[in-house]
């Protein structure tokens, strides 16, 4: 869960000073906010501010809520107003930092987290967030020092161990860093055995170290603990200890990305140098008409909506579809789409015919091993002459290859992609190699692909 959604520690002074007429309403607002009922919470915070103008807790928490709803400029004003009244409130400084961080203003976020720590030296969430923004600014030595200080200060903080594990894996320069990463993930799980993502981290680190059977044993133990959990089932196949499915199961994708939604942008954009949306859209702009608002566009696997601002100017209608409801919620808060739907991609595409001029899919088809069903459905959803564009992780080699990797994602060869596109009813196929992000401190080679639906041949 994102730190910006956990702001509900009121100072004792504020609690004692709260006049009874609005204290009960404020408590109901907080409870609704924590329960995810944002409509009720916003209405109740408004009632508090009607009763007591400039009540700082209501301003602060309403600001957090506005940011959750994509109204980040309003959030900055509200939390800033709260801090004018209670200038030494570390939670408010921390949450103001979260707004800046999630809007990409890393230097502003850093200043807020440092101010939070001045006001509350023991505020370990602010310390954790400071490490994140230092990492995002590629000040890696400073970030490591802050992570170390965090765990000295809060040795039982499971999320701190988990974040340090990710840091070490993301920026690993040798096997020792991967060993340390695995141990951080183990410690995160010891501190909180509900944090099963830490087990996934252990398994991936062990596989990257070449300890394949040890990785498989982690996933087998996890399956014994949680036999219905789709994540260890998929990851067991990813390390070669079970048969690889033709594509990642719906429950696996949904589980992973619902849990990843709050930190997706932070991890990929800030810490892994993720650039697939920009690279893909620039590649497509070479062949798309420059006329504004001319295209019906589908963002297939829209995630948190990173493609929306890049596509909006060209789109007459912009539709986003994703299997993860958590990701769609983030895309809705970001804005830019005319329609957003939660659905499995192949089936959703298969129900549309000659509806779109462009289908774009950034970093989604990496969860498909067999591409023919989804690309055939995409061809049917496109109008004749329409374009598809997508990214994949690349395998070098001459044959038609597709394989599941230890990350849980698939890689494909150029020859395989070309064959499937031609068989699915596309021509004018162009495939360009590029680096789309980093993993374990190394660039991940990918394919950036575009192809046009043929105008004269039936597809499907």
From TrEMBL:
Top-rank lineage group of the source organism: Bacteria
Q: Which residues form the Methyltransferase type domain?
A: 298-388
Q: Which UniProt keywords apply?
A: Repeat, TPR repeat
Return the Gene3D superfamilies for the record. Tetratricopeptide repeat domain, Vaccinia Virus protein VP39
Each TPR repeat, start to end? 90-123, 124-157, 196-229
Q: Which regions span the lipid bilayer?
A: none
Q: Which Pfam families match?
A: Methyltransf_11, TPR_16
What's this protein's name?
Answer: Tetratricopeptide repeat protein
Question: Which species?
Answer: Dyella ginsengisoli
């Amino acid at each position: 869960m994102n730190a910006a959604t956990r702001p509900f520690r009121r100072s004792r002074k504020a609690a004692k000073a709260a006049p009874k007429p609005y204290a009960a309403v404020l408590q109901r607002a907080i409870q609704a906010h924590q329960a995810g009922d944002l409509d009720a919470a916003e209405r109740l915070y408004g009632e508090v501010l009607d009763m007591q103008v400039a009540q700082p807790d209501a301003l602060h928490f309403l600001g957090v809520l506005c940011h959750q709803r994509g109204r980040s400029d309003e959030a900055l004003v509200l939390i800033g107003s709260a801090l004018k009244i209670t200038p030494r409130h570390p939670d408010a400084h921390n949450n103001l930092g979260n707004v800046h961080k999630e809007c990409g203003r890393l230097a502003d976020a850093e200043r807020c987290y440092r101010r939070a720590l001045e006001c509350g030296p023991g505020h370990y969430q602010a310390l954790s967030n400071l490490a994140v923004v230092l990492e995002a600014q590629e000040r890696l030595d400073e970030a490591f020092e802050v992570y170390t200080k965090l765990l000295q200060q809060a040795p039982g903080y499971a999320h701190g161990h988990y974040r340090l594990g990710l840091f070490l894996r993301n920026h690993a320069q040798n096997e020792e860093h991967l060993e340390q990463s695995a141990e951080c993930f183990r410690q995160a799980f010891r501190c909180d055995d509900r944090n099963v993502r830490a087990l996934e981290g252990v398994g991936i680190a062990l596989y990257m170290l070449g300890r394949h059977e040890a990785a498989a044993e982690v996933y087998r133990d996890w399956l014994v603990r949680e036999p219905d959990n789709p994540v260890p089932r998929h990851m067991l196949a990813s390390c070669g200890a079970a048969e690889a499915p033709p594509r990642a199961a719906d429950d696996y994708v949904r589980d992973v990305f619902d849990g990843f939604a709050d930190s997706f942008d932070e991890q990929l954009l800030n810490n892994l140098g993720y650039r697939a949306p920009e690279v893909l859209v620039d590649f497509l702009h070479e062949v798309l008409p420059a006329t504004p608002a001319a295209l019906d566009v589908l963002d297939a696997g829209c995630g948190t909506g990173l493609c929306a601002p890049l596509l909006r100017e060209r789109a007459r209608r912009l539709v986003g579809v994703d299997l993860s409801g958590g990701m769609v919620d983030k895309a809705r808060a970001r804005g830019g789409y005319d329609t957003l739907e939660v659905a499995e991609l192949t089936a959703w595409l298969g129900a549309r015919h000659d509806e779109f001029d462009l289908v774009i899919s950034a970093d989604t088809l990496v969860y498909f091993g067999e591409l023919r069903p989804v690309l055939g459905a995409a061809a049917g959803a496109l109008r004749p002459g329409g374009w598809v564009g997508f990214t994949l992780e690349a395998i070098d080699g001459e044959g038609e290859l597709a394989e599941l990797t230890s990350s849980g994602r698939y890689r494909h060869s150029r020859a395989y992609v070309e064959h499937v596109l031609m068989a699915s009813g596309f021509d004018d196929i162009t495939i360009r190699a590029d680096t789309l992000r980093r993993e374990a401190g190394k660039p991940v080679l990918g394919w950036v692909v575009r192809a046009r639906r043929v105008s004269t041949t039936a597809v499907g």
